[in-house]
Amino acid sequence: MKTLEVINSSENKTTISAEEIDKLQYLLNGSSICAEDANYDEARQIWNGMFDKRPAIIVRCANATDVMNAVRFAREHNLLVAVRGGAHNVAGLASYDDGLVIDLSQMRAVTVDPQTRTAKVEGGAQLGDIDRATQAYGLVVPIGVVSETGIGGLTLNGGVGWLRRKWGMTCDNLISVELVTAEGELITASKTENQDLFWALRGGGGNFGIVTAFEFELHPLGPEVMFCFTFYPDSKDIMQKFREYAQNQPEEVSALSFTGAVPEDENFPQEWWHQPFYAVAACYAGSAEEGERVLQPLREWGQPIVDFSDRLAFTEVQKVLDADYPKGRNYYWKSVYLKELSDETMDTLLALNRKAPSHHSTIDIWTMGGALSRVSPDESPLAPREAPYMIGIEANWDDPADSDRNITWVRECVTRLEKFSAPGNYLNFPGFLEEGDELIKDAYGKNLKRLAQVKQQYDPDNFFRLNQNIKPKKAMVVQK
Ligand SMILES: Cc1cc2nc3c(=O)[nH]c(=O)nc-3n(C[C@H](O)[C@H](O)[C@H](O)COP(=O)(O)OP(=O)(O)OC[C@H]3O[C@@H](n4cnc5c(N)ncnc54)[C@H](O)[C@@H]3O)c2cc1C
């Protein structure tokens, strides 16, 4: 290899010699991958087909020391760094053209201690890795609903899934975090060590360092749970029934209902293909028997198109939606918190669904509340948390030529929903990096100031900036 062109932290091109790359490789247990390597194309791919990035160097870390050495190398050469966990960030944050990618995708080990009901999870693990390990002991961490999503990005910005109303966001279940700082040091943050940093990591995103290991509290559940998954024709009447149910549901129920178009799939009656639907999905975080009884009303609202509800292994529930999100398809998403699910909001959602340019797209209604809303701003920067619903708008399409139409549809949905919205924003779903900027104030409210001070303390040069970026800010010293 000759000299390599790389982008520096001021976003200008600079060069690195082959000798420097060799020195870095010598320090790694993992590997460094550049454009001339046979596995470069496989290594640079991320989940969202909208982003076809070509980083200059991918450092595939095998352990925390590799991460430390990669950060020190980037600091020494003043390089712009992207961090890759599960590579499922919708805005494609796991990579950057001509940048250096610190790739944790090989760091997926999960160790469970059934005595203390805790799990240690490496920073590049996928959600399925965690479910497989914890369910072997009949335990769970509340995580997201698609098994290949990365625990890194998901936890650092919150994390909502099928158990959220019972046990909160994923970040609410953190006990401690091991993290490589912007100086390349490995430190621990918990309620007793580096407390400010620990607070910031429970929702403040990838701003403060690279997490090499998360320690989570575990809860008993499974192996079998009741899962409701009923597809109805799209109808305001059924949405109203869903609202009524949601207002009285126990915390064990976390529901996700969504509109879409029936797929061309033999599991659905052919006469319904491409027709608009309204599906109700919910998991019961308790015994399967009790769950069957509590979720039964969701299945009795007239004649469904099809009802897939069943008692399932919890590991299966965690994969139910996987097939809908293949790697390489084009995706553009956004979300809005709702203050209520009014009749007018329902009319709007049903009409917007019928306008979706792609039949893979959905509009999702997540029920919130329960344990999610009991976390105080002192515990997590994600505040406010009072909204009873979150709407996710997902444009999912195959042909890149359709991108403009799909992006426009999502933006129109957000604009039309604005008047029904509640304060706050959820930063795990925005579709473009630059769109995060305007959402950050909403997401953190008054906590943004404290986050900026923690950023100043741990990353004053904004080394970790390819994320929903919080700018460092010194605390004001008031002199008498
Ligand atoms: C199919 C699909 C389903 C989803 N389902 C849910 C869901 O049910 N609930 C939910 O809440 N969200 C969900 N999301 C959103 C998801 O949480 C975010 O996209 C998240 O960013 C993915 O994390 P990742 O590690 O895969 O991201 P990556 O693309 O690998 O990384 C994104 C960013 O996260 C940060 N990051 C990742 N790992 C680390 C680390 N170890 N240390 C420091 N920073 C790190 C970095 O800032 C990086 O830029 C889903 C996304 C997809 C694509």
Q: What is the CATH topology assignment of the largest domain?
A: Vanillyl-alcohol Oxidase, Chain A, domain 3
CATH architecture of the largest domain: 3-Layer(aba) Sandwich
Number of helices: 14
Number of domains: 3
Please report the total strand number as a whole number. Answer: 21
Largest sheet: 8 strands, antiparallel
Give an overview in words.
This protein is an alpha+beta fold and 480 residues long. The protein folds into three domains: 4-103, Uridine Diphospho-n-acetylenolpyruvylglucosamine Reductase, domain 2 (2-Layer Sandwich); 110-220, Uridine Diphospho-n-acetylenolpyruvylglucosamine Reductase, domain 3 (2-Layer Sandwich), CATH 3.30.465; 224-438, 3-Layer(aba) Sandwich (Vanillyl-alcohol Oxidase, Chain A, domain 3). It has 14 helices and 21 strands. The strands form five sheets. Strands 14, 15, 16, 17, 18, 19, 20 and 21 form an eight-stranded antiparallel sheet that branches. Strand 1 (4-7) and strand 2 (13-16) form a beta hairpin.
Relevant terms:
480 residues, alpha+beta, Uridine Diphospho-n-acetylenolpyruvylglucosamine Reductase, domain 2, Uridine Diphospho-n-acetylenolpyruvylglucosamine Reductase, domain 3, Vanillyl-alcohol Oxidase, Chain A, domain 3, 3 domains, eight-stranded antiparallel beta sheet, five-stranded antiparallel beta sheet, 14 helices, 21 strands, binds flavin-adenine dinucleotide
